[in-house]
């Protein structure tokens, strides 16, 4: 365990440097929680993603937020950073991998997960990719190799370590697998140039890599866990929930409706809607990526949250020292109370 902790400490130090650098150009407001505005409207401050449409943005465009205003404060650099901003009052809602939420909650942050917003299904998932001529084909081949991930303590690290553990690798062998923090946009080229051995990719970047003749898929997260999975949730601060329960219900249920709208709507229609949203918000973005959107990636109908969304990572959470499996209490981390679709039994 000591060796494993040491390896993570070094990597987390590198992640901290990368995050600090990225945040230098993305200063967030530090005012207190957003209040109620004219006409009883409530503002939800959030971070988004360039060239992408989030489910809250889709919900707003679909008219599911009659008394809510979304206030974009900048682009997030990672899920852990996004929810940390919520915990410190810089934003009001943010999303991250389930394990990162557990870690923040265990540290005493007063946050609660209210709805799933991403995950992995048959069409949308996260995977590991290598050069086609690479000799890496099984978990044991990763010993001594470098794997690029977008951030540490999140989805990629969790499913990689789960794959290694379930394959029977020892702690000493796992410690020799080096996780390197690298911007996803640079991962494919780094694989090609042999600067890294393996890269974790999802979404558009995954599609682009697979379209090239010299890149092949090694494994998917759904194969590692053996099922489709809800990967991460939106969280809000407990004081914000207490202050604006009706608005939180409108927000959570609105996002749930947006997920279901995207699930049942033809892809071409979803693409067109995303393009219109991006073009209308004047952020100097490209709409090229939206045509690669394939599915919601959220198996649970309405984004309903369950204990399994957290317990499926219990072994990894314990191995990294975040929480003892016996102390993992998912019910204290999330609620479906504000998701009317979940309460209607659509889960």
TrEMBL record:
Signal peptide (from-to): 1-24
Ranges where the SsuA/THI5-like domain occurs: 58-267
Transmembrane segments: none
Cell compartments where the protein resides: Periplasm
Keyword annotations of the record: Signal
Keyword field contains Signal: yes
Family annotation (Pfam families): NMT1 (PF09084)
Source organism, top-level taxon: Bacteria
Primary residence: periplasm
Cellular component aspect of the GO annotation: periplasmic space
Family as reported in the entry's similarity comment: Belongs to the bacterial solute-binding protein SsuA/TauA family.
Name of this protein: ABC transporter substrate-binding protein
């Amino acid at each position: 365990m000591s060796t494993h902790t040491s390896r993570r400490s070094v990597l987390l130090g590198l992640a901290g440097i990368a995050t600090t650098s990225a945040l230098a150009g993305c200063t967030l407001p530090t005012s207190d929680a957003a209040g109620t505005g004219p006409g009883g409207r409530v503002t939800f401050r959030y971070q988004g993603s360039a060239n992408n449409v989030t489910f809250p943005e889709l919900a707003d465009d679909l008219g599911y937020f009659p008394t809510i205003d979304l206030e974009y404060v900048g682009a997030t650099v990672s899920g852990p950073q996004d929810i940390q901003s919520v915990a410190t009052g810089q934003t009001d809602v943010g999303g991250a991998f389930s394990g990162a939420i557990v870690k923040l909650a265990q540290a005493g942050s007063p946050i609660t997960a209210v709805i799933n917003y991403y995950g992995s299904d048959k069409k949308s998932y996260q995977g590991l990719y290598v050069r086609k001529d690479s000799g890496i084909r099984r978990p044991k081949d990763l010993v001594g190799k470098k794997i690029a991930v977008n951030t540490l303590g999140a989805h990629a690290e969790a499913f990689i370590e789960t794959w290694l553990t379930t394959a029977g690798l020892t702690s000493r062998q796992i410690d020799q697998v080096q996780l390197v923090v690298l911007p996803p946009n640079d991962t494919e080229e780094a694989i090609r140039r042999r600067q890294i051995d393996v890269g974790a990719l999802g979404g558009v970047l995954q599609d682009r890599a697979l379209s090239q003749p010299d890149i092949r898929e090694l494994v998917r997260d759904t194969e590692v866990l053996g099922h489709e999975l809800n990967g991460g949730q939106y969280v809000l601060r407990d004081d914000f929930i207490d202050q604006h329960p009706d608005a939180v219900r409108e927000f959570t249920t609105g996002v749930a409706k947006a997920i279901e709208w995207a699930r049942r709507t033809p892809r071409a229609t979803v693409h067109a809607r995303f393009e219109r949203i991006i073009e209308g918000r004047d952020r100097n973005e490209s709409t090229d990526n939206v045509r690669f959107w394939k599915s919601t990636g959220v198996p649970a109908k309405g984004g309903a949250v369950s204990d399994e969304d957290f317990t499926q990572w219990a072994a990894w959470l314990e191995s990294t020292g975040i929480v003892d499996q016996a102390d993992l209490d998912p019910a204290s981390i999330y609620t479906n109370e504000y998701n009317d679709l979940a309460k209607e039994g659509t889960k």
